[in-house]
Amino acid sequence: MPLALLALAIGAFGIGTTEFVTSGLLPEVVDEFGVSVPTAGYLSTGYALGVVLGAPLLAVLGARIPRKRMLMGLMGLFVVGNALSAAAPAFGLLLTGRIVASLAHGAFFGIGAVVAADLVAPHKRAGAIAMMFTGLTVANVVGVPVGTLVGQSAGWRVTFYAIAGLGVLAVLGIAALVPAQPRPEHSPVRGELAAFRNPQVLLAMAMTVLGFGGVFTMTTYLTPMATEVTGYAPSSVTWLLVLFGLGMVGGNLVGGRYADRALMPMLFTALGGLAVLLALLPLAAHHKAAAAADILLIGAFGFATVPPLQKRVLDQTAGAPTLASAVNIGAFNLGNALAAWLGGLVISAGLGYTSPPWVGALMAGAALGLALVSAALERRAVRSGRVVAAGPATGRGNAGTSAAAEVAGERVGAAG
Hints:
The protein is mostly helical. The protein has two domains: 1-185, Growth Hormone, Chain: A (Up-down Bundle), CATH 1.20.1250; 191-416, MFS general substrate transporter like domains (Growth Hormone, Chain: A, Up-down Bundle), CATH 1.20.1250.20. The chain is 80% helix and 0% strand. The protein has helices at 4-20, 22-33, 37-40, 42-61, 67-87, 91-118, 125-154, 156-177, 188-194, 199-219, 222-230, 237-259, 263-284, 288-303, 306-316, 322-348, 356-384, 403-415. Helix 5 (67-87) runs antiparallel to helix 8 (156-177) and helix 10 packs antiparallel against helix 15. 57% of the residues are buried. It is a multi-pass membrane protein. InterPro entries: MFS, MFS_dom, MFS_Efflux_Transporters, MFS_trans_sf. This is MFS transporter. It comes from Streptomyces mashuensis. Its main location: membrane.
């Protein structure tokens, strides 16, 4: 794999660390600023909203800027946000710093996925995307626990300064290792917006919201379920999250590898397995070993959906992929927010701490249904002659999913 992917992965590692580390540092923030725990929770809510809004906004504003320069600018914005958070004299400025940093999140992953895919041969694109996202998954295993430990021992400000330092390292890595990217041409914003008229793009984004969102019905309410139902000590929850993170790392790499071979079958397997594992968790939650194994596998199957879903969007928007790719990153965060809200509803209804995974199972099942619809529409397009398959009907080679296949189909149609 090209060394440029390492620079992108470092940026992803920093972003993943800053996104989740505030959960472990809330007590320190509460003590310093004298705010309530729910108020301190706005640090996570504000970040998520910043991702959803910043992804399309910055992708459009940077549509005519070369992608390498845009990536460096986004990481610069990330550095500024984290430095502002670290130096904030008041809670309001800390929240402002979090939002500034979050604006770079969606656009960085969206544009980074396009750049990563362009660095390799077409049959290795999902693997390249997965390599970049490995930085995000490793952040959950290493960055968040270490950042929490540093913040608890040396102060939470030190953690944010260290994350800003990671951002500087990523800027330098991108400058040195990522090859120059061509400047977009011919009114790119109009072309980028046109991608959303493609039903396959909208279906892929809906799968992102529902499929990956289902994972967060488990993670959002993991602590009360693990301590109140399974019987784990509160200190053990950190290790359960590390276990979940290890599953994410493995699932991301496997999903990237097999999505390059057979994208839709990989997506069917990941979404179907995720739905089953979430449905089983309320039962497994009554046994420590079973719960730990299920949490590990939910992380694996959940993140195995990320490379194929991101590549699916890129394949369907080959001529103008940047905005759609960035919006799909925002869709992940929208799914997180939806999952947390729905999980809270069923708990408030008195169904207990094991009820959110049932909601997650329904969400993942709905995503699987959309994947089947997407595949059926694609097969119909192939039969009607609008798309020429890129591989055998077994699905290997991503039959009908590649940009090359779509272009070939259009040429056949034009010739006819």
